[in-house]
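Schema walkthrough. Field components (list of strings):
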Amino acid sequence: MNSELSAFFDHALPAIDASLDRLVPSESTPPARLHQAMRYSLFAGGKRLRPALSVAGFALCRPDWNDVLPVACAFEMIHTYSLIHDDLPAMDDDDFRRGIPSCHRKFGEAIAILAGDALLTLAMETIARADAFPPDRLLRVTAMIARAAGTPAGMIAGQVFDLEAEGRPIGEINVEQIHRSKTGALITTAVTAGAFLGGVSEAELEAVRVYGERIGLAFQIVDDILDETVPMETLGKTGGKDRDQQKATYPALVGLDKSRAIVAEITGQARRSIEGLGGRARILLSIADYLETRSH
Amino acid sequence: MNSELSAFFDHALPAIDASLDRLVPSESTPPARLHQAMRYSLFAGGKRLRPALSVAGFALCRPDWNDVLPVACAFEMIHTYSLIHDDLPAMDDDDFRRGIPSCHRKFGEAIAILAGDALLTLAMETIARADAFPPDRLLRVTAMIARAAGTPAGMIAGQVFDLEAEGRPIGEINVEQIHRSKTGALITTAVTAGAFLGGVSEAELEAVRVYGERIGLAFQIVDDILDETVPMETLGKTGGKDRDQQKATYPALVGLDKSRAIVAEITGQARRSIEGLGGRARILLSIADYLETRSH
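Field assembly_structure (string):
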Protein backbone atom coordinates (compact mmCIF):
# COMPACT_ATOMS: atom_id res chain seq x y z
CA MET A 1 0.00 0.00 0.00
CA ASN A 2 1.48 3.37 -1.00
CA SER A 3 1.72 6.23 1.46
CA GLU A 4 -1.09 8.25 -0.10
CA LEU A 5 -3.53 5.32 0.21
CA SER A 6 -2.26 4.62 3.69
CA ALA A 7 -2.99 8.24 4.68
CA PHE A 8 -6.44 7.97 3.10
CA PHE A 9 -7.25 4.83 5.08
CA ASP A 10 -5.84 6.36 8.29
CA HIS A 11 -8.28 9.20 7.84
CA ALA A 12 -11.32 7.42 6.38
CA LEU A 13 -11.49 4.16 8.35
CA PRO A 14 -11.82 5.71 11.83
CA ALA A 15 -14.45 8.08 10.41
CA ILE A 16 -16.36 5.11 8.97
CA ASP A 17 -16.17 3.26 12.29
CA ALA A 18 -17.32 6.32 14.22
CA SER A 19 -20.23 6.74 11.84
CA LEU A 20 -21.22 3.07 12.19
CA ASP A 21 -21.06 3.45 15.95
CA ARG A 22 -23.48 6.39 15.80
CA LEU A 23 -25.87 4.61 13.42
CA VAL A 24 -26.32 1.29 15.25
CA PRO A 25 -28.34 1.12 18.52
CA SER A 26 -26.10 0.82 21.57
CA GLU A 27 -25.36 -2.51 23.26
CA SER A 28 -27.59 -1.57 26.18
CA THR A 29 -30.62 -0.54 24.10
CA PRO A 30 -33.30 -3.26 24.31
CA PRO A 31 -33.34 -5.80 22.79
CA ALA A 32 -29.71 -5.74 23.96
CA ARG A 33 -28.62 -9.13 22.63
CA LEU A 34 -29.71 -8.22 19.13
CA HIS A 35 -27.74 -4.98 19.15
CA GLN A 36 -24.75 -6.72 20.72
CA ALA A 37 -24.81 -9.26 17.89
CA MET A 38 -25.07 -6.55 15.22
CA ARG A 39 -22.13 -4.71 16.73
CA TYR A 40 -20.12 -7.88 17.33
CA SER A 41 -20.12 -8.64 13.61
CA LEU A 42 -19.85 -5.03 12.44
CA PHE A 43 -16.81 -4.32 14.61
CA ALA A 44 -15.01 -7.62 14.13
CA GLY A 45 -12.15 -6.20 12.10
CA GLY A 46 -13.60 -5.93 8.62
CA LYS A 47 -11.45 -4.25 6.00
CA ARG A 48 -14.16 -1.64 5.29
CA LEU A 49 -13.48 -2.01 1.57
CA ARG A 50 -17.01 -1.11 0.46
CA PRO A 51 -17.46 2.05 2.54
CA ALA A 52 -13.90 3.12 1.67
CA LEU A 53 -14.82 2.77 -2.00
CA SER A 54 -17.92 4.93 -1.46
CA VAL A 55 -15.80 7.58 0.21
CA ALA A 56 -13.13 7.43 -2.53
CA GLY A 57 -15.81 7.62 -5.24
CA PHE A 58 -17.41 10.60 -3.55
CA ALA A 59 -14.00 12.28 -3.17
CA LEU A 60 -13.58 12.35 -6.96
CA CYS A 61 -15.64 15.55 -6.87
CA ARG A 62 -15.94 16.35 -3.18
CA PRO A 63 -12.76 16.11 -1.07
CA ASP A 64 -14.96 16.95 1.97
CA TRP A 65 -16.35 13.44 2.14
CA ASN A 66 -17.97 13.51 5.60
CA ASP A 67 -21.46 13.86 4.16
CA VAL A 68 -21.25 10.50 2.41
CA LEU A 69 -20.35 8.50 5.51
CA PRO A 70 -23.87 7.26 6.38
CA VAL A 71 -24.39 5.97 2.84
CA ALA A 72 -20.91 4.41 2.89
CA CYS A 73 -21.80 2.69 6.17
CA ALA A 74 -24.98 1.27 4.65
CA PHE A 75 -22.78 -0.76 2.31
CA GLU A 76 -20.81 -2.13 5.26
CA MET A 77 -24.04 -3.05 7.05
CA ILE A 78 -25.26 -4.99 4.01
CA HIS A 79 -21.90 -6.69 3.58
CA THR A 80 -21.88 -7.68 7.26
CA TYR A 81 -25.45 -9.02 7.17
CA SER A 82 -24.51 -11.16 4.17
CA LEU A 83 -21.53 -12.64 6.04
CA ILE A 84 -23.68 -13.43 9.09
CA HIS A 85 -26.28 -15.23 6.99
CA ASP A 86 -23.66 -16.96 4.78
CA ASP A 87 -21.97 -18.39 7.88
CA LEU A 88 -25.18 -20.02 9.19
CA PRO A 89 -25.24 -23.84 9.49
CA ALA A 90 -27.84 -24.08 6.71
CA MET A 91 -25.54 -22.11 4.39
CA ASP A 92 -21.71 -22.30 4.48
CA ASP A 93 -21.68 -23.48 8.12
CA ASP A 94 -18.62 -21.47 9.17
CA ASP A 95 -17.62 -21.43 12.82
CA PHE A 96 -15.11 -18.64 12.44
CA ARG A 97 -15.04 -15.27 10.73
CA ARG A 98 -12.16 -12.81 10.95
CA GLY A 99 -10.48 -14.94 13.59
CA ILE A 100 -13.34 -15.00 16.07
CA PRO A 101 -16.47 -17.18 16.42
CA SER A 102 -19.06 -16.39 13.77
CA CYS A 103 -22.20 -14.56 14.89
CA HIS A 104 -24.38 -17.66 15.31
CA ARG A 105 -21.62 -19.46 17.25
CA LYS A 106 -21.49 -16.53 19.65
CA PHE A 107 -25.18 -15.55 19.90
CA GLY A 108 -27.12 -18.55 18.61
CA GLU A 109 -28.81 -19.03 15.27
CA ALA A 110 -32.03 -17.13 15.98
CA ILE A 111 -30.24 -13.95 17.03
CA ALA A 112 -27.79 -14.28 14.13
CA ILE A 113 -30.61 -14.51 11.58
CA LEU A 114 -32.34 -11.50 13.13
CA ALA A 115 -29.10 -9.49 13.47
CA GLY A 116 -28.56 -9.98 9.73
CA ASP A 117 -32.13 -8.95 8.97
CA ALA A 118 -31.74 -5.90 11.19
CA LEU A 119 -28.50 -4.78 9.53
CA LEU A 120 -30.09 -4.99 6.09
CA THR A 121 -33.10 -3.03 7.31
CA LEU A 122 -30.93 -0.43 9.06
CA ALA A 123 -28.87 0.04 5.88
CA MET A 124 -32.00 1.08 4.00
CA GLU A 125 -33.19 3.33 6.81
CA THR A 126 -29.77 4.96 6.98
CA ILE A 127 -29.81 5.90 3.30
CA ALA A 128 -33.38 7.18 3.57
CA ARG A 129 -32.31 9.46 6.42
CA ALA A 130 -29.05 10.72 4.86
CA ASP A 131 -30.42 14.23 4.53
CA ALA A 132 -27.23 15.82 3.20
CA PHE A 133 -28.41 14.89 -0.31
CA PRO A 134 -31.48 15.65 -2.45
CA PRO A 135 -34.26 13.04 -2.05
CA ASP A 136 -34.22 12.04 -5.73
CA ARG A 137 -30.51 11.16 -5.50
CA LEU A 138 -30.98 9.16 -2.29
CA LEU A 139 -33.92 7.34 -3.79
CA ARG A 140 -31.80 6.36 -6.79
CA VAL A 141 -29.06 5.13 -4.44
CA THR A 142 -31.67 3.11 -2.52
CA ALA A 143 -32.77 1.45 -5.75
CA MET A 144 -29.12 0.85 -6.76
CA ILE A 145 -28.12 -0.75 -3.46
CA ALA A 146 -31.28 -2.88 -3.28
CA ARG A 147 -30.68 -4.15 -6.80
CA ALA A 148 -27.03 -4.93 -6.00
CA ALA A 149 -27.96 -6.70 -2.77
CA GLY A 150 -30.98 -8.57 -4.12
CA THR A 151 -32.13 -10.76 -6.98
CA PRO A 152 -31.91 -11.56 -9.91
CA ALA A 153 -28.77 -9.48 -10.53
CA GLY A 154 -27.33 -9.04 -7.06
CA MET A 155 -25.78 -10.61 -4.01
CA ILE A 156 -28.63 -12.89 -2.90
CA ALA A 157 -28.93 -14.35 -6.40
CA GLY A 158 -25.15 -14.90 -6.37
CA GLN A 159 -25.35 -16.76 -3.08
CA VAL A 160 -27.96 -19.10 -4.56
CA PHE A 161 -25.87 -19.63 -7.70
CA ASP A 162 -22.93 -20.41 -5.42
CA LEU A 163 -24.92 -22.91 -3.31
CA GLU A 164 -26.26 -24.58 -6.45
CA ALA A 165 -22.77 -24.89 -7.92
CA GLU A 166 -21.45 -26.85 -4.92
CA GLY A 167 -20.32 -30.29 -5.92
CA ARG A 168 -21.14 -29.82 -9.60
CA PRO A 169 -18.33 -30.28 -12.18
CA ILE A 170 -16.50 -26.96 -12.37
CA GLY A 171 -16.65 -26.92 -16.17
CA GLU A 172 -20.44 -26.65 -16.07
CA ILE A 173 -20.43 -23.62 -13.80
CA ASN A 174 -20.32 -19.96 -14.76
CA VAL A 175 -17.86 -18.81 -12.10
CA GLU A 176 -17.76 -15.25 -13.37
CA GLN A 177 -21.57 -14.99 -13.12
CA ILE A 178 -21.40 -16.15 -9.50
CA HIS A 179 -18.67 -13.67 -8.58
CA ARG A 180 -20.28 -10.84 -10.49
CA SER A 181 -23.55 -11.16 -8.58
CA LYS A 182 -22.34 -12.47 -5.24
CA THR A 183 -19.57 -9.96 -4.51
CA GLY A 184 -19.13 -7.82 -7.62
CA ALA A 185 -22.49 -6.05 -7.66
CA LEU A 186 -22.22 -4.62 -4.14
CA ILE A 187 -18.57 -3.52 -4.60
CA THR A 188 -19.43 -1.88 -7.91
CA THR A 189 -22.42 -0.11 -6.41
CA ALA A 190 -20.43 1.08 -3.38
CA VAL A 191 -18.04 3.06 -5.56
CA THR A 192 -20.63 4.22 -8.11
CA ALA A 193 -23.10 5.36 -5.43
CA GLY A 194 -20.34 7.43 -3.84
CA ALA A 195 -19.32 8.93 -7.17
CA PHE A 196 -22.96 9.60 -8.09
CA LEU A 197 -23.68 11.42 -4.82
CA GLY A 198 -20.45 13.37 -5.21
CA GLY A 199 -21.68 14.61 -8.58
CA VAL A 200 -19.60 13.04 -11.38
CA SER A 201 -20.86 13.29 -14.95
CA GLU A 202 -22.75 10.39 -16.55
CA ALA A 203 -19.67 9.47 -18.61
CA GLU A 204 -17.46 9.51 -15.52
CA LEU A 205 -20.04 7.41 -13.67
CA GLU A 206 -19.85 4.77 -16.38
CA ALA A 207 -16.02 4.77 -16.13
CA VAL A 208 -16.31 4.32 -12.36
CA ARG A 209 -18.84 1.53 -12.86
CA VAL A 210 -16.46 -0.42 -15.10
CA TYR A 211 -13.66 0.20 -12.60
CA GLY A 212 -15.85 -1.16 -9.78
CA GLU A 213 -16.90 -4.19 -11.77
CA ARG A 214 -13.29 -5.06 -12.62
CA ILE A 215 -11.86 -4.59 -9.11
CA GLY A 216 -14.87 -6.45 -7.69
CA LEU A 217 -14.05 -9.49 -9.78
CA ALA A 218 -10.32 -9.17 -9.05
CA PHE A 219 -11.09 -8.92 -5.34
CA GLN A 220 -13.01 -12.19 -5.35
CA ILE A 221 -10.40 -14.06 -7.35
CA VAL A 222 -7.68 -12.86 -4.98
CA ASP A 223 -9.87 -14.03 -2.09
CA ASP A 224 -10.09 -17.48 -3.65
CA ILE A 225 -6.32 -17.57 -4.26
CA LEU A 226 -5.65 -16.59 -0.64
CA ASP A 227 -8.09 -19.24 0.57
CA GLU A 228 -5.91 -21.85 -1.17
CA THR A 229 -2.52 -20.48 -0.20
CA VAL A 230 -2.62 -18.66 3.13
CA PRO A 231 -2.74 -20.39 6.54
CA MET A 232 -5.95 -20.14 8.57
CA GLU A 233 -4.35 -18.02 11.35
CA THR A 234 -3.58 -15.27 8.85
CA LEU A 235 -6.93 -15.52 7.09
CA GLY A 236 -9.03 -15.53 10.26
CA LYS A 237 -11.40 -18.05 8.77
CA THR A 238 -11.28 -21.70 7.83
CA GLY A 239 -8.76 -21.86 4.97
CA GLY A 240 -9.05 -24.40 2.18
CA LYS A 241 -12.76 -24.57 2.92
CA ASP A 242 -13.77 -23.53 -0.58
CA ARG A 243 -11.96 -26.54 -1.96
CA ASP A 244 -13.42 -28.88 0.68
CA GLN A 245 -16.93 -27.63 -0.13
CA GLN A 246 -16.15 -27.85 -3.87
CA LYS A 247 -16.92 -24.16 -4.29
CA ALA A 248 -16.85 -22.59 -7.72
CA THR A 249 -13.58 -20.61 -7.82
CA TYR A 250 -11.07 -19.46 -10.42
CA PRO A 251 -8.23 -21.47 -8.83
CA ALA A 252 -10.40 -24.59 -9.12
CA LEU A 253 -11.30 -23.70 -12.70
CA VAL A 254 -7.96 -22.55 -14.18
CA GLY A 255 -5.34 -23.11 -11.45
CA LEU A 256 -3.41 -20.61 -9.30
CA ASP A 257 -0.98 -19.23 -11.91
CA LYS A 258 -3.62 -18.51 -14.49
CA SER A 259 -5.85 -17.02 -11.77
CA ARG A 260 -3.03 -14.62 -10.84
CA ALA A 261 -2.65 -13.65 -14.49
CA ILE A 262 -6.38 -12.95 -14.76
CA VAL A 263 -6.22 -10.74 -11.66
CA ALA A 264 -3.41 -8.71 -13.23
CA GLU A 265 -5.32 -8.38 -16.48
CA ILE A 266 -8.63 -7.23 -15.05
CA THR A 267 -6.94 -4.90 -12.57
CA GLY A 268 -5.29 -3.29 -15.60
CA GLN A 269 -8.73 -2.89 -17.19
CA ALA A 270 -9.95 -1.22 -14.00
CA ARG A 271 -7.03 1.22 -14.06
CA ARG A 272 -7.49 2.11 -17.71
CA SER A 273 -11.21 2.70 -17.26
CA ILE A 274 -10.60 5.65 -14.91
CA GLU A 275 -7.49 7.04 -16.59
CA GLY A 276 -9.53 9.87 -18.06
CA LEU A 277 -10.36 11.15 -14.59
CA GLY A 278 -6.76 12.29 -14.13
CA GLY A 279 -5.18 13.05 -10.78
CA ARG A 280 -8.53 12.97 -8.97
CA ALA A 281 -8.58 9.19 -9.41
CA ARG A 282 -5.29 8.55 -7.62
CA ILE A 283 -6.93 6.97 -4.56
CA LEU A 284 -9.08 4.67 -6.69
CA LEU A 285 -5.98 3.64 -8.66
CA SER A 286 -4.11 2.94 -5.44
CA ILE A 287 -7.02 0.84 -4.16
CA ALA A 288 -6.85 -1.22 -7.36
CA ASP A 289 -3.11 -1.79 -6.83
CA TYR A 290 -3.66 -2.68 -3.21
CA LEU A 291 -6.43 -5.19 -3.95
CA GLU A 292 -4.25 -6.85 -6.58
CA THR A 293 -1.28 -7.35 -4.29
CA ARG A 294 -2.85 -7.83 -0.86
CA SER A 295 -1.73 -10.88 1.11
CA HIS A 296 -4.71 -11.33 3.44
CA MET B 1 -67.82 -8.47 6.76
CA ASN B 2 -70.28 -5.88 5.40
CA SER B 3 -71.02 -5.64 1.69
CA GLU B 4 -69.06 -2.42 1.19
CA LEU B 5 -65.91 -3.97 2.65
CA SER B 6 -66.55 -7.14 0.71
CA ALA B 7 -66.73 -5.09 -2.52
CA PHE B 8 -63.53 -3.26 -1.57
CA PHE B 9 -61.67 -6.54 -1.00
CA ASP B 10 -63.11 -8.01 -4.22
CA HIS B 11 -61.62 -5.06 -6.06
CA ALA B 12 -58.38 -4.49 -4.14
CA LEU B 13 -57.11 -8.00 -3.42
CA PRO B 14 -56.83 -9.15 -7.06
CA ALA B 15 -55.12 -5.84 -7.89
CA ILE B 16 -52.64 -6.40 -5.05
CA ASP B 17 -51.96 -9.95 -6.23
CA ALA B 18 -51.50 -8.82 -9.82
CA SER B 19 -49.08 -6.12 -8.67
CA LEU B 20 -47.10 -8.62 -6.57
CA ASP B 21 -46.95 -10.90 -9.59
CA ARG B 22 -45.45 -8.10 -11.70
CA LEU B 23 -42.94 -7.08 -9.03
CA VAL B 24 -41.39 -10.46 -8.20
CA PRO B 25 -39.07 -12.21 -10.71
CA SER B 26 -40.80 -15.08 -12.52
CA GLU B 27 -40.40 -18.71 -11.44
CA SER B 28 -38.20 -19.39 -14.47
CA THR B 29 -35.81 -16.45 -13.96
CA PRO B 30 -32.48 -17.73 -12.58
CA PRO B 31 -31.92 -18.46 -9.78
CA ALA B 32 -35.26 -20.19 -10.28
CA ARG B 33 -35.52 -21.96 -6.91
CA LEU B 34 -35.12 -18.67 -5.07
CA HIS B 35 -37.90 -16.99 -7.04
CA GLN B 36 -40.09 -20.08 -6.69
CA ALA B 37 -39.64 -19.93 -2.92
CA MET B 38 -40.43 -16.20 -2.79
CA ARG B 39 -43.59 -16.76 -4.83
CA TYR B 40 -44.57 -19.90 -2.92
CA SER B 41 -44.77 -17.93 0.32
CA LEU B 42 -46.15 -14.73 -1.20
CA PHE B 43 -49.01 -16.53 -2.94
CA ALA B 44 -49.86 -19.00 -0.18
CA GLY B 45 -53.22 -17.44 0.67
CA GLY B 46 -52.27 -14.55 2.92
CA LYS B 47 -55.08 -12.23 3.95
CA ARG B 48 -53.29 -9.18 2.40
CA LEU B 49 -54.25 -7.16 5.47
CA ARG B 50 -51.24 -4.82 5.30
CA PRO B 51 -51.47 -3.90 1.60
CA ALA B 52 -55.26 -3.58 1.93
CA LEU B 53 -54.67 -1.09 4.76
CA SER B 54 -52.25 0.89 2.57
CA VAL B 55 -54.83 1.01 -0.20
CA ALA B 56 -57.62 1.99 2.21
CA GLY B 57 -55.41 4.68 3.78
CA PHE B 58 -54.53 6.05 0.36
CA ALA B 59 -58.20 6.01 -0.66
CA LEU B 60 -59.04 8.48 2.14
CA CYS B 61 -57.94 11.19 -0.30
CA ARG B 62 -57.49 9.35 -3.58
CA PRO B 63 -60.21 6.90 -4.64
CA ASP B 64 -58.01 6.07 -7.67
CA TRP B 65 -55.69 3.90 -5.58
CA ASN B 66 -53.82 2.10 -8.36
CA ASP B 67 -50.73 4.26 -7.92
CA VAL B 68 -50.18 3.06 -4.36
CA LEU B 69 -50.17 -0.65 -5.21
CA PRO B 70 -46.36 -1.09 -5.41
CA VAL B 71 -45.89 0.53 -2.00
CA ALA B 72 -48.77 -1.56 -0.60
CA CYS B 73 -47.09 -4.69 -1.97
CA ALA B 74 -43.83 -3.76 -0.25
CA PHE B 75 -45.64 -4.21 3.08
CA GLU B 76 -46.82 -7.68 2.04
CA MET B 77 -43.27 -8.61 0.99
CA ILE B 78 -41.91 -7.58 4.37
CA HIS B 79 -44.70 -9.39 6.20
CA THR B 80 -44.05 -12.54 4.16
CA TYR B 81 -40.28 -12.40 4.72
CA SER B 82 -40.91 -12.15 8.47
CA LEU B 83 -43.14 -15.24 8.41
CA ILE B 84 -40.53 -17.23 6.45
CA HIS B 85 -37.78 -16.34 8.93
CA ASP B 86 -40.04 -16.79 11.99
CA ASP B 87 -40.93 -20.32 10.86
CA LEU B 88 -37.26 -21.44 10.64
CA PRO B 89 -36.12 -24.24 12.95
CA ALA B 90 -33.89 -21.84 14.88
CA MET B 91 -36.87 -19.56 15.53
CA ASP B 92 -40.45 -20.83 16.03
CA ASP B 93 -39.77 -24.09 14.13
CA ASP B 94 -43.13 -24.26 12.36
CA ASP B 95 -43.69 -26.94 9.73
CA PHE B 96 -46.92 -25.46 8.42
CA ARG B 97 -48.11 -22.01 7.45
CA ARG B 98 -51.51 -21.26 5.97
CA GLY B 99 -52.21 -24.99 5.64
CA ILE B 100 -49.19 -25.87 3.52
CA PRO B 101 -45.58 -26.72 4.38
CA SER B 102 -43.62 -23.67 5.52
CA CYS B 103 -41.00 -22.30 3.12
CA HIS B 104 -38.01 -24.13 4.65
CA ARG B 105 -39.94 -27.42 4.71
CA LYS B 106 -40.60 -27.05 1.01
CA PHE B 107 -37.32 -25.51 -0.24
CA GLY B 108 -34.79 -26.18 2.51
CA GLU B 109 -33.41 -23.81 5.10
CA ALA B 110 -30.80 -22.08 2.96
CA ILE B 111 -33.26 -21.08 0.25
CA ALA B 112 -35.83 -20.04 2.88
CA ILE B 113 -33.34 -17.73 4.59
CA LEU B 114 -32.37 -16.21 1.25
CA ALA B 115 -35.98 -15.94 0.02
CA GLY B 116 -36.75 -13.93 3.15
CA ASP B 117 -33.71 -11.72 2.63
CA ALA B 118 -34.70 -11.20 -1.00
CA LEU B 119 -38.28 -10.22 -0.17
CA LEU B 120 -37.07 -7.62 2.32
CA THR B 121 -34.62 -6.26 -0.23
CA LEU B 122 -37.21 -6.23 -3.01
CA ALA B 123 -39.64 -4.36 -0.77
CA MET B 124 -37.16 -1.52 -0.42
CA GLU B 125 -36.33 -1.50 -4.13
CA THR B 126 -40.04 -1.45 -4.96
CA ILE B 127 -40.65 1.67 -2.88
CA ALA B 128 -37.57 3.35 -4.32
CA ARG B 129 -38.89 2.74 -7.83
CA ALA B 130 -42.54 3.75 -7.17
CA ASP B 131 -42.23 6.77 -9.40
CA ALA B 132 -45.86 7.87 -9.15
CA PHE B 133 -44.86 9.90 -6.07
CA PRO B 134 -42.39 12.71 -5.34
CA PRO B 135 -38.96 11.41 -4.20
CA ASP B 136 -39.13 13.16 -0.82
CA ARG B 137 -42.39 11.36 0.01
CA LEU B 138 -41.05 7.99 -1.08
CA LEU B 139 -37.90 8.55 0.93
CA ARG B 140 -39.97 9.30 4.02
CA VAL B 141 -41.99 6.12 3.41
CA THR B 142 -38.74 4.15 3.07
CA ALA B 143 -37.60 5.48 6.43
CA MET B 144 -41.00 4.73 7.98
CA ILE B 145 -41.16 1.15 6.73
CA ALA B 146 -37.54 0.42 7.67
CA ARG B 147 -38.15 1.73 11.17
CA ALA B 148 -41.33 -0.34 11.52
CA ALA B 149 -39.61 -3.47 10.22
CA GLY B 150 -36.35 -3.03 12.13
CA THR B 151 -34.96 -2.30 15.57
CA PRO B 152 -35.26 -0.96 18.29
CA ALA B 153 -38.92 0.02 17.71
CA GLY B 154 -40.02 -2.40 15.00
CA MET B 155 -40.73 -5.94 13.98
CA ILE B 156 -37.27 -7.47 14.39
CA ALA B 157 -36.96 -6.07 17.90
CA GLY B 158 -40.41 -7.51 18.66
CA GLN B 159 -39.36 -10.93 17.45
CA VAL B 160 -36.37 -10.83 19.82
CA PHE B 161 -38.57 -9.68 22.72
CA ASP B 162 -40.89 -12.56 21.87
CA LEU B 163 -38.07 -15.14 21.79
CA GLU B 164 -36.68 -13.83 25.06
CA ALA B 165 -40.09 -14.05 26.73
CA GLU B 166 -40.47 -17.77 25.97
CA GLY B 167 -40.68 -19.80 29.14
CA ARG B 168 -40.45 -16.78 31.43
CA PRO B 169 -43.29 -16.16 33.93
CA ILE B 170 -45.98 -14.24 32.05
CA GLY B 171 -46.25 -11.63 34.82
CA GLU B 172 -42.71 -10.46 34.14
CA ILE B 173 -43.31 -9.88 30.47
CA ASN B 174 -44.53 -6.74 28.75
CA VAL B 175 -46.91 -8.42 26.27
CA GLU B 176 -48.12 -5.13 24.83
CA GLN B 177 -44.54 -4.06 24.06
CA ILE B 178 -43.97 -7.33 22.19
CA HIS B 179 -47.18 -7.00 20.17
CA ARG B 180 -46.62 -3.31 19.51
CA SER B 181 -43.22 -3.88 17.96
CA LYS B 182 -43.64 -7.37 16.50
CA THR B 183 -46.89 -6.89 14.58
CA GLY B 184 -48.23 -3.45 15.49
CA ALA B 185 -45.53 -1.29 13.97
CA LEU B 186 -45.80 -2.71 10.45
CA ILE B 187 -49.63 -2.68 10.45
CA THR B 188 -49.63 0.91 11.70
CA THR B 189 -47.10 1.96 9.09
CA ALA B 190 -49.00 0.21 6.28
CA VAL B 191 -52.06 2.36 6.81
CA THR B 192 -50.17 5.58 7.65
CA ALA B 193 -47.86 5.27 4.64
CA GLY B 194 -50.89 4.87 2.38
CA ALA B 195 -52.64 7.85 3.94
CA PHE B 196 -49.46 9.94 3.78
CA LEU B 197 -48.92 9.21 0.08
CA GLY B 198 -52.59 9.93 -0.60
CA GLY B 199 -52.10 13.37 0.91
CA VAL B 200 -53.94 13.57 4.26
CA SER B 201 -53.20 16.49 6.58
CA GLU B 202 -50.78 16.08 9.49
CA ALA B 203 -53.69 15.96 11.96
CA GLU B 204 -55.47 13.32 9.90
CA LEU B 205 -52.23 11.35 9.64
CA GLU B 206 -51.98 11.29 13.44
CA ALA B 207 -55.60 10.06 13.67
CA VAL B 208 -54.81 7.31 11.17
CA ARG B 209 -51.67 6.41 13.11
CA VAL B 210 -53.64 5.90 16.34
CA TYR B 211 -56.23 3.88 14.39
CA GLY B 212 -53.45 1.67 12.99
CA GLU B 213 -51.82 1.21 16.37
CA ARG B 214 -55.12 0.16 17.98
CA ILE B 215 -56.23 -2.24 15.22
CA GLY B 216 -52.69 -3.65 15.10
CA LEU B 217 -52.86 -4.57 18.76
CA ALA B 218 -56.43 -5.89 18.41
CA PHE B 219 -55.37 -7.98 15.42
CA GLN B 220 -52.64 -9.69 17.41
CA ILE B 221 -54.83 -10.37 20.44
CA VAL B 222 -57.49 -11.89 18.17
CA ASP B 223 -54.76 -14.02 16.60
CA ASP B 224 -53.77 -15.29 20.02
CA ILE B 225 -57.42 -15.98 20.94
CA LEU B 226 -57.92 -17.93 17.70
CA ASP B 227 -54.71 -19.87 18.33
CA GLU B 228 -56.29 -21.13 21.57
CA THR B 229 -59.79 -21.77 20.32
CA VAL B 230 -59.81 -22.72 16.65
CA PRO B 231 -58.85 -26.17 15.30
CA MET B 232 -55.64 -26.49 13.30
CA GLU B 233 -57.43 -27.31 10.00
CA THR B 234 -59.23 -23.97 10.08
CA LEU B 235 -56.15 -22.03 11.18
CA GLY B 236 -53.79 -23.54 8.61
CA LYS B 237 -50.99 -23.63 11.13
CA THR B 238 -50.19 -25.56 14.28
CA GLY B 239 -52.89 -24.47 16.75
CA GLY B 240 -52.21 -24.25 20.48
CA LYS B 241 -48.55 -23.82 19.64
CA ASP B 242 -48.24 -20.50 21.43
CA ARG B 243 -49.29 -22.18 24.65
CA ASP B 244 -46.96 -25.14 24.09
CA GLN B 245 -44.06 -22.76 23.48
CA GLN B 246 -45.14 -20.61 26.45
CA LYS B 247 -45.46 -17.58 24.21
CA ALA B 248 -46.35 -14.24 25.69
CA THR B 249 -50.02 -13.70 24.78
CA TYR B 250 -53.02 -11.87 26.20
CA PRO B 251 -55.02 -15.09 26.69
CA ALA B 252 -52.12 -16.46 28.77
CA LEU B 253 -51.90 -13.19 30.70
CA VAL B 254 -55.55 -12.35 31.37
CA GLY B 255 -57.61 -15.27 30.03
CA LEU B 256 -59.91 -15.54 27.01
CA ASP B 257 -62.88 -13.51 28.25
CA LYS B 258 -60.84 -10.55 29.39
CA SER B 259 -58.83 -10.73 26.14
CA ARG B 260 -62.06 -10.45 24.15
CA ALA B 261 -63.10 -7.47 26.24
CA ILE B 262 -59.76 -5.78 25.56
CA VAL B 263 -60.19 -6.36 21.82
CA ALA B 264 -63.60 -4.67 21.93
CA GLU B 265 -62.22 -1.75 23.90
CA ILE B 266 -59.22 -0.99 21.70
CA THR B 267 -61.22 -1.52 18.50
CA GLY B 268 -63.56 1.17 19.84
CA GLN B 269 -60.57 3.45 20.37
CA ALA B 270 -59.52 2.81 16.76
CA ARG B 271 -62.99 3.75 15.48
CA ARG B 272 -63.18 6.92 17.54
CA SER B 273 -59.74 8.02 16.40
CA ILE B 274 -60.88 8.35 12.78
CA GLU B 275 -64.44 9.57 13.44
CA GLY B 276 -63.42 13.07 12.40
CA LEU B 277 -62.60 11.86 8.88
CA GLY B 278 -66.30 11.33 8.20
CA GLY B 279 -67.66 9.19 5.39
CA ARG B 280 -64.24 8.86 3.73
CA ALA B 281 -63.21 6.55 6.59
CA ARG B 282 -65.98 3.99 6.06
CA ILE B 283 -63.64 1.32 4.68
CA LEU B 284 -61.19 1.76 7.55
CA LEU B 285 -64.07 1.50 10.03
CA SER B 286 -65.31 -1.68 8.34
CA ILE B 287 -61.81 -3.15 8.49
CA ALA B 288 -61.74 -2.50 12.24
CA ASP B 289 -65.11 -4.29 12.62
CA TYR B 290 -63.93 -7.17 10.50
CA LEU B 291 -60.68 -7.63 12.43
CA GLU B 292 -62.58 -7.61 15.71
CA THR B 293 -65.03 -10.32 14.68
CA ARG B 294 -63.03 -12.52 12.31
CA SER B 295 -63.04 -16.23 13.03
CA HIS B 296 -59.80 -17.29 11.30
